[in-house]
Structures are given as C-alpha cells and as structure tokens.
C-alpha cells in the first residue's frame, strides 16, 4: 500500500472548451446527470451492485449478533467498507465513461491506494453533516450537497482531506439545487423499491433464503446508483466548469 502524502500532481485543465459557444458546451442539469448515471450503471450493473454488496456484508452479521460492542464494531467496519467502495466506484465510472471496462478487483485495487485520505475526509464530512442534520435537518442537506464530490476529488485529484472538502465546495457552487434534486430522486427510488419488495418477505410465508437474497440485491440498486451518480456528478462538474473531459484524466489512476 502506498503511503499517503500531502503532495499531489498539479492539475492541468483544458480551458479551450470554456471559450466555445454556450450551445456547444456541456451543461449540468438534473436530466443530463441522471441520463449519464443510468447509462454508466447499465454498462456494468453486476459490477456496481457487487461493489455495493461489500459494505452490506457486516450488517448481515450484525443481525445475528446480540452484543452491543460487536454490533458497534460491525457498524464501523461497514462504514469503512462504504468509503473504500466509493473510491473504487470512482475508478470504475471513469473507465466506463472512457468507453472501457473494469473488473471488481481492479477497481478495488485502485480505491485501496487512496483509502486513508478518503477515510479522513469522510470522517470530517460525516461529522459536519451529522451536526447539520441535528440542527433541524436543513443544514445537513446543504452540507451534503456542498461536499458530495469530496471522495471523487480525493481519489482523482489526489488531494488531501481538507483540500478535497474545499474543492468539492468550489465545484458544487451554483449547482447545489440540481444536486439536491438528484439526491431526492435516489431517496424516491429507495422508498419505492422498499415499498415494492418488503411485502414479499412480510406476507409470503416461508419465502426462503433465495427470495430474501433477491430482495436484498434489489434494495442494493439505489445504493449502487447513488455511488455511480456521485462519480458522474464529479466528472460532469469538471466538464462544465473547467472544460476537462474524462479523457483528459488518463494518468490520474496510474
């Protein structure tokens, strides 16, 4: 594992596209991001759902453990896995948007390289947003929209934790209402799927292990979509605000 260093390569931006007429430049809209998210997700749904399954594994063990300490430990492991997976998804989405494919092992290996700075950045973001949600929810929603691309920034631009938070704030400025509606869409999908599949387990006696497994996989879909969408939001913001296409980031994962 590579040691974490605050030093990072200087970003080089392609400003040529910023001089193009507005009609030819990409724009950040809710519909456009959702379209790119769905297209990216459908390029490799098994990969993204499989990656989303990894953080959920500790929760399955937690359901059969009674000791509070063990449950807390499993919850912490699940949180760490979630951060690691978001870093891996950032790489998988990058490859997909470049028209290439990636494997779960390759994506996990790339994500592992930035695990510790991602962990620190996520702890900071998690603490800030938690306080925000305690303060009548609305501040938490605002902070979530501000810092939503912190992890992709940390992974792709190899920034330190605090620099990643600041960079996310700059990138999301002027587009936070669109980001809010994108997050609301994921919440709606999660709620709809939950309402659709929960009766299968509750009202069908002896539904069996395979049925429950299918239900769990279905409920992983919005989790996987959110991870993909977060990465797509980051890459789209780079295109819109800086004229940097995904192809310009060819060496960031080397």
The count of helical stretches stands at 10
Shape: globular
What structural category arises from helix and sheet content?
A: mainly alpha
Radius of gyration: 19 Å
The counted number of beta strands is: 0
| N- and C-termini, Cα separation | 14 Å
Helix-strand string: HHHHHHHHHH
Helix content: over 70%
* Sheet with the most strands, sense and barrel status: none
Strand content: under 5%
> On the 0-100 scale, what is the average pLDDT?
78
Q: Which residues form runs of ≥5 with pLDDT under 50?
A: 1-24
Kindly describe this structure.
This protein is mainly alpha-helical and 254 residues long. It is built from 10 helices and no strands. Helix 2 crosses helix 10 and helix 3 crosses helix 7. It is globular. The two termini are 14 Å apart. The N terminus is likely disordered.
Short description:
By secondary structure, this protein is mostly helical. 72% of the residues lie in helices and 0% in strands.
Characteristics:
10 helices; 254 residues; mainly alpha; disordered N terminus; globular
What's the arrangement of secondary structure elements?
Elements: H1 30-43, H2 45-62, H3 68-97, H4 104-112, H5 115-134, H6 138-146, H7 150-156, H8 161-172, H9 176-203, H10 208-242
Helix pairs in contact: 1-10, 2-3, 2-10, 3-4, 3-5, 3-7, 3-10, 5-6, 5-7, 5-8, 6-9, 7-8, 9-10
């Amino acid at each position: 594992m590579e040691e974490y260093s605050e030093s990072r390569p200087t970003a080089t931006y392609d400003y040529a596209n910023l001089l193009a007429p507005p009609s030819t430049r990409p724009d950040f809209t809710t519909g456009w991001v959702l379209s790119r998210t769905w297209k990216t997700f459908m390029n490799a749904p098994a990969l993204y759902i499989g990656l989303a399954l990894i953080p959920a594994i500790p929760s399955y063990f937690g359901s059969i453990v009674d000791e509070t300490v063990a449950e807390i430990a499993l919850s912490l492991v699940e949180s760490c896995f979630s951060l690691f997976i978001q870093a891996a998804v950032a790489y998988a989405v990058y490859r997909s948007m470049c028209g290439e494919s990636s494997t779960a092992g390759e994506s996990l290996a790339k994500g592992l390289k930035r695990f510790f700075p991602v962990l620190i950045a996520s702890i900071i973001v998690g603490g800030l947003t938690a306080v925000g949600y305690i303060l009548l929810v609305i501040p938490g929603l605002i902070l979530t929209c501000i810092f939503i691309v912190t992890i992709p920034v940390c992974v792709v631009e190899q920034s330190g934790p605090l620099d990643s938070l600041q960079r996310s704030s700059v990138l999301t400025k002027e587009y936070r209402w669109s980001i809010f509606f994108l997050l609301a869409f994921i919440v709606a999908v999660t709620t709809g799927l939950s309402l659709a599949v929960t009766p299968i387990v509750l009202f069908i006696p002896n539904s069996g292990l395979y049925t429950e497994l299918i239900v769990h996989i279905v409920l992983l879909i919005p989790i996987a979509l959110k991870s993909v969408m977060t990465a797509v939001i980051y890459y789209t913001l780079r295109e819109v605000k800086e004229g940097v296409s995904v192809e310009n980031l060819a060496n960031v994962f080397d």
